[in-house]
Amino acid sequence: MNVNMVDLGALHTRLAKELDPAIMNVVRSGAYIKGPDVSAFEEELAKYLGVKHVISCANGTDALQLALMSLDIPKGAQIITTAQSFIATAEAAALLGYEPVFVDVKDDYNIDEKLIEAAITEKTAAIIPVHLFGKSCDLSAIIKIANKYSLHIIEDTAQALGAEYEIDGERKKAGTAGTIGCTSFFPTKNLGCMGDGGAVWTNDDNLARKLRMLASHGSEKKYHNTAIGINSRLDTIQAAVLRVKLRYLDEFNKRRREIAVMYNRLLADMEQYITLPEADEQTSRHVFHQYTIALKRGGVQEREAIREALKERGIATMVYFPVALHKLPVFAEKNKETHLPNAEKLADRVIALPMHTELKKEEVEYVCQALREATKEAFS
Ligand SMILES: *Cc1c(COP(=O)(O)O)cnc(C)c1O
């Protein structure tokens, strides 16, 4: 049996009756840039998220960059973020001349909000929490800190679209309680298109206008550019695909949660070797972009032995992320004195198992049995 990390072909087959005509409509219309599906998708996503303004853009990295550009943060300012994420989160800040400051993570892989305050200096301008692997951060705690020090919050929701959190007793969609929310529609994300895509959103009318202006070469009126912006657009074809898939997002996320619960049940006897993520079919806090486990002991050698044994049985695994952000060559020089023990330890011990909407029960069972054997072997 072969079990892959994702199966986008199977997902397309399941939705082909709706996706194919949606795509062909755009192809025939000729409206490849800024066609009607783009604004329609923005409105539908805004409604889904419960926010006033959604501005689509070319990818999730641009979304982060646009968010930072819109906030008038002075050069040299510090941006606090997590040590465990995809490079894009810190890259956008560094590219604009800001200094990313990395904070350690908790065992659920999200930024440890209790460590944020100690990282704040006079230069701190914003916090970028990342809802990693689909689990929403404790945003209530982060909002308290941000308010105390007048900091912006840019939420990186690339892995957690559709997840929820509770703010002052009110349930909200992850990404919508900070200043600006960002996401990516990279094909493998929970809401993915068939190429690159991204979006930013906010409830602030002025920021929304600015974000749209910046994404469009710094112009609100064509040939009357008022700021240095970028060219970042969502293609009409991608918007058409996303309009179809958005209708299924809650169903996709529900299926991901069911699979996570299945994994946890089948791996419950492995708790002496591995830490399992918290999974509960009822809670919407986690939408399992990834199902990530961590070895309780050992390191890269044991981890790679387990992955190799799974590979021999036809099972794909991934490591998100093998290097904590502050240890990446591009940031390491500036962070020689930075020690973030949990992020560094997890980088050596995490394994992401196959997780996608089309995964079958038999495949999950096969993965768990193989993982059980491989882990016992690695520690024998
Ligand atoms: C995927 C991802 C991004 C970047 O998205 P792209 O669309 O690939 O640019 C940013 N942050 C996180 C956490 C991601 O997973």
Describe what this molecule looks like in 3D.
This protein is an alpha/beta fold and 380 residues long. Helices cover 40% and strands 14% of the residues. It has 13 helices and 12 strands. The protein has helices at residues 8-29, 36-49, 60-69, 88-95, 116-119, 139-149, 205-215, 236-246, 249-266, 300-312, 329-332, 341-349, 361-378; strands at residues 53-57, 78-82, 99-103, 124-128, 152-156, 164-167, 170-173, 180-184, 198-202, 274-275, 291-295, 350-353. The strands form 3 sheets. Strands 1-9-8-5-4-2-3 form a 7-stranded mixed beta sheet, with helices on both faces. A 3-stranded antiparallel beta sheet has the order 10-11-12. It has a two-stranded antiparallel sheet with strand order 6-7. β6 and β7 (170-173) form a beta hairpin. α2 (36-49) runs parallel beside α8 (236-246) and α10 (300-312) crosses α13. The longest helix is centred in the N-terminal third of the chain and has 22 residues, at 8-29. The protein is globular. The two termini are 26 Å apart. The mean pLDDT is 97. Bound molecules: pyridoxal-5'-phosphate. Pyridoxal-5'-phosphate (PLP) binds at residues 59-61, 85-86, 88-89, 130, 156, 158-159, 184, 186, 196, 198.
Tell me the overall shape.
globular
How do the SSEs run, as a string of H and E?
Answer: HHEHEHEHEHEEEEEHHHEEHHHEH
The bound ligands are: pyridoxal-5'-phosphate
Major sheet:
7 strands, mixed
**Average pLDDT score:** 97
Low-pLDDT segments, ≥5 res: none
